[in-house]
Specification:
By secondary structure, the protein is of the alpha+beta class. It has one domain: Muramoyl-pentapeptide Carboxypeptidase, domain 2 (2-Layer Sandwich). 27% of the residues lie in helices and 18% in strands. It is built from 5 helices and 6 strands.
Length: 175
């Protein structure tokens, strides 16, 4: 499926060629499943476009991750990934024909330079339907996903001295 624009402010390619790993490797990284294209469009139109309209241009730091790209990510690379959980693979299949991520939907990570990402995260919580939002810190990209369940799960990722992250699910009132 060769599509260009998925929303007012984004093309599909904005989600394929944004990660540091893709920049380093340039491996093929586009969806094969039609459902993934639909999910990318939904995330772009219902969450990202309204963010751009409110705050200005965003930088996508991690978008779509095919099985081929995931195989190129090194153990200590940023972003930290969990392909079976993080929804960056959309509805794609692994080499055995099974879904890479059992959660439906799609996710991306983004940042708005020189702006508090806590402010942006709170805006998302107050104004958007979302599945999961991972908050890594004021000056770090936000991970946000859409999915049919719209769980509205907020996860604060606390970094330890070792560099590892510990997730803590919080209620909207405590964010």
């Amino acid at each position: 499926m060769a599509l260009k624009h998925c929303s007012k402010h984004f093309s599909y390619e904005d989600f394929y060629f944004c990660s540091n790993t893709w920049q380093r490797t340039k491996v093929p990284n586009s969806p094969e499943q039609d459902e993934t294209y639909v999910a990318i469009k939904q995330l772009a139109t219902t969450i990202l476009d309204p963010i751009v309209d409110t705050f200005g241009k965003i930088e996508i730091s991690y978008g779509f991750c095919s099985h081929t790209l995931a195989a190129q990510i090194k153990k200590n690379d940023i972003p930290l990934i969990s392909p079976n959980l993080d929804q960056h693979a959309g509805y794609e299949l692994n080499t055995r024909g099974n879904r890479i991520c059992k959660r439906d939907g799609f996710a991306c990570d983004f940042i708005i330079p020189n702006l508090s990402m806590k402010l942006v995260a709170k805006w998302i919580v107050e104004n958007c339907d979302f599945d999961r939002l991972y908050f890594y810190g004021e000056n770090r990209p936000i991970h946000v996903s859409i999915g049919p369940d719209d769980k509205r799960q907020i996860v604060i990722m606390k970094q330890l001295d070792s560099g590892r992250y510990i997730p803590r699910v919080v209620k909207e009132d405590n964010f």
